[in-house]
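Sequence in, structure out.
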Amino acid sequence: MSATVRPRGRPRIQETADDVVASVLAAAGPRAGASAYSTREIAAMVGLSQSLVSRSVRRIRGGGVDPGRARDAGQDAGGEAGRARRRLRLVAVEERHGVIRVEFGPAPASAGEGPGQSNIRVRRRAAALMAGLWVAGGAPQPADRPRDSESPRVPIPVGGGAVVELRPTGPEWAAGLRDVADALADCVPQEDAVPGPLLREVASRAHRGLRGLSWHRDGRLPDRRDSDSDHHATEDLPPGERLATALRGEVADAGLRPGDRIPPGRLGSRTGMGPGAVRGALTQLAARGLVERRSPGHAVAAVQGADVIDVYAARLQLGQVLLRGAAARPRHRLLPMRAALDRLREAHEVGVAVEVDQADLRFQRAMAEASGLRQSAEAFHELTLRVQMFIAVLQLDYGPAADRILADDRRLLAAVLDGGGDDAARIWRAKLDHAVRHMCAIAPERFDAALWNRLSGR
């Protein structure tokens, strides 16, 4: 980060607070919208006063504009008062050759504003995106081009779009940050205004200048979990698994933590299920211990590392039985496994970790169904529901393991097609061993490798 010229009248402690808070928000990912990232919670997290943190959040969200100076100039900290508001939608963020490109398009005519609490989440997530840019290119410096307080620098008509190109090493960095802040302030405040997958990518790349970031709202697989049509990807699943898949996406995108209430309305939007069906499916999940009952409604259940290893050990044994069963079946019964592997390959080519993860679980479901062993398959599906929830609640990232996941599933299908049940069982054991050890590596305080070794018979 380049040295910052301290503006006159702003104490150095505020500069320090700005950088600390920007780092916290940039690393928060989709969780930034949750109550765990309120100014009070951030203040407790970093040991600063809430007033300092509140001022930092406003400055970061406004692209470096001091809230007091913004008021003096007749501006809002994230946009300009008195000018015509545009109805925008964030459509792309990418980095190429050192240039960060942020694109906004017109919001759909049907887009409306959400309830107040949702708007708070949207503002927090917008601050997290701005914090990622702040960390990637450094705090804006007053030597950059001064703010034009009378009109936005991107002269576009109301309802139009905007493209902002930022060069972290150039003299226009501060001006570019404020352009992005203006446009974000004009985005219709819906739940997906700043999508979770984008924040996840920003969190993982901010300290590397966002190198390699390429997020496009419409350039994704049809079953991307933050899509408005998530239910098309899950409509072939039983209601419980369908809802668990959607709930996993909601937990990750909204930053829900154990004990947080589950929003049934948004789950209905994700799945296409009616309110009664959502409530019924949540009741079923609560009876199976996958969510907690609350009065009223339901909440995200807590997860212990030992629970995860317990489930993986059971899936290890059942999976070996199912693979031996599938290897003895006629080849035409294995066509669903082939189709599921094709979807996994497509997800891998797109390069989105969560898509690989979900496609892998679909491949495993097809494997279980291909076995013809109904009782074992049902027990396996029940355990898969638990795995989906565990991964979401624990915020596990399988991106580094995507290549291995695809390679393992290719080998599994090849072994089953050759009738090699024992070979498939060995590959399955190695696959799950890699999965659990990946968990132990990224969250060693949660997972006990020795327990896994005992339960898996290593």
